[in-house]
Amino acid sequence: MSRSPHRSILALSIAGLLAGCATNPPAAPIAHGVNSNQNIATLIVLDQILRADPNNVDALVQRGLIHHQQGDYDRAVDEENRAIALNPHKGEAYAVRALALYMKDQLDDAFADATHAIELEPGTIDAYELRGQIYADRGRYVEAIEEFDTTLKLDPNDDEALAGRAFCLLQRDRYDEAIADWNHLLQMEPNRLDAFAGRAFNYHQKGDDQRAVEEYTRAIDGGMATSWNYRQRAKSFAILGDQVHENADLDRTIATANAELAEAPDRIDLLNNRGIAYAERDQRARAIEDLTRVIATGPQSSESYVELAQSYEALGDTDQALQTYSAGLAVRPQSSTLWNDRCWTRALAGQLDLALGDCTEALKRSPNYAAALDSRAFVHLKAGRFDQAIADYDSALRIEPKMANSLYGRSLARRQRGDLKGAAEDRDAALKIDPDLPHRYVEKYHITL
User: Fold this and answer.
1) CATH architecture of 358-449
2) 354 versus 43: which is more confidently predicted?
3) How sure is the predictor about 22, in pLDDT bands with cuts at 50, 70 and 90?
4) Contacts of 21 (CB under 8 A, 6+ apart)
5) How far is the C-alpha of 300 from the C-alpha of 293, rounded, in Å?
6) Separation CA 68–CA 47 (nearest Å)
7) How many CA atoms lie within 13 A of 305 on its CB side?
């Protein structure tokens, strides 16, 4: 975390401890990134100090921090408990214990300790940063941003606070501000690969998928060749219409996830990456196996539910697809994608009134969502409401002029309204993009207008 002189828990020094003046500015701060040999050497010194003075609170705090860095969170908590028993006003002890408790998934206790550390020593940077992380973990992004803002007022170059704030800004659709934080990180650390990946995701969300591909490529080529980055780059290639590179990255996603899962078989995020890639590569049975396991562990992203539902639908199990969409909406009710996709599936199943309600919900959340306008137009088309269908197709095509499905659907509606010239123009434009549309409308959508 932070390396600032603002009373960071990392600003304790062995030199200060040996001199008996740990409250002075540190000569050699020990940070989270120290190597194991340095930790071992530090522990030897701390043990010597504590043999001579078992009640040395600063040494106990520092030894707890080393245990935390080594992943021994129980021992870290024990050391800080001893320190707090000796000096209940030692803010650093609460801050270190908060870090260890956080790693033990005791979030309420960690938050309480971080808050107490701030009350005792208001400049404890790591405590603000940890509270920001806990807020972010709980989806409370506004409060998280406030905590990271405070951290960055104390230390404008705190790398973890910049990365944390960038993530939260992304969740609030504040893409330019998030990119600015990633840019700041890259100014400090020009080869920081997670910053390239983070910036790439923001560019994708902004609709600049060419930039997203470039940024993901920098992260991957630099050594961050993860299943997540391959999967995200595949999405950008798909939007750019580059199916060759999309499929290549989906195959890399699967292969990389296999290797990652061999090392960490309990990582649900890796299973999710593989399951979505299987779905996109039309390996539906494998997708269902992976994504069912993922969703069984608890609420997931809307994308996981969408891909699982579409896999059921591709195998002809409409009932299970609709159940999956409904399960997704129970935990992600703000997902316009889930509302839209259930609308489409219900429309194909002939549940037109229910489908219309779903499309309306999608458009309440995303009024300019072209796919939802296309879906609602399709519902009107199937119901014989041709003027309303044309109006929604018009709106969809104003947003995405080359949406082949909307062009073809509008051609059918226009023909029913007697606009043969307009119908022919729409049909020709649609077939140039997707020649299989007439067959799909008859065989899959059961529309013979």
Assistant:
1) Alpha Horseshoe (1.25)
2) 354
3) very low
4) none
5) 11
6) 16
7) 26
Residue 65 · residue 9 · CB < 8 Å: yes
Q: Looking at this protein, which amino acid is placed at residue 436? A: D
Count the Cβ atoms, other than its own, within 10 Å of residue 432. 11
Count of residues making up the chain: 449
176 Cβ partners below 8 Å, 6+ apart?
206
Dihedral in degrees, nearest 10, Cα atoms 203, 207, 213, 214: -50
pTM: 0.76
Q: What is the pLDDT of residues 173-194, one digit of tens each?
A: 899 999 999 999 999 999 999 9
CATH superfamily membership of 1-190: Tetratricopeptide repeat domain (1.25.40.10)
Q: What is the dihedral of CA 397, 398, 402, 405, to 10 degrees?
A: -10
- Token pair recorded at residue 301: 């992203």
Give the residue carrying structure tokens 């009640």: 55
- DSSP one-letter string for 373-414: HHHHHHHHHHHT-HHHHHHHHHHHHHH-TT-HHHHHHHHHHH
222-238 b/e with 16+ CB inside 10 Å = b?
eebebbbbbbbbbbbbb
CA distances from 403 to 220, 233, 278, 362, 436 (A): 32, 22, 25, 18, 14
- C-alpha 237/C-alpha 248 separation (Å) is 10
The single residue listed with the structure tokens 């960690």 is 110
Residue spans in the chain of domains classed CATH 1.25.40.10: 1-190, 358-449
Is the per-residue pLDDT at 34 higher than 60? no
Please choose, from the candidates 363, 358, 289, the residue with its C-alpha nearest in 3D space to the C-alpha of residue 322: 358
Q: How far apart are the first and last CA of the chain?
A: 64
Is the pLDDT at 342 greater than 50? The verdict is yes
Give bridge partners of residue 13 from the DSSP assignment.
29
pLDDT band at 30 (very low <50, low <70, confident <90, very high): very low
Tokens coding 143: 């409060």
Instruction: Look at 9 and 141; give whichever has higher pLDDT.
Output: 141
Tokens 């059961």 locate to: 446
Tokens read off for 378:
């399709």
Within 10 Å of residue 321's Cβ, how many Cβ atoms? 24
Structure tokens at 35: 């190597």
Q: Please report the pLDDT score of residue 366 as a whole number.
A: 93
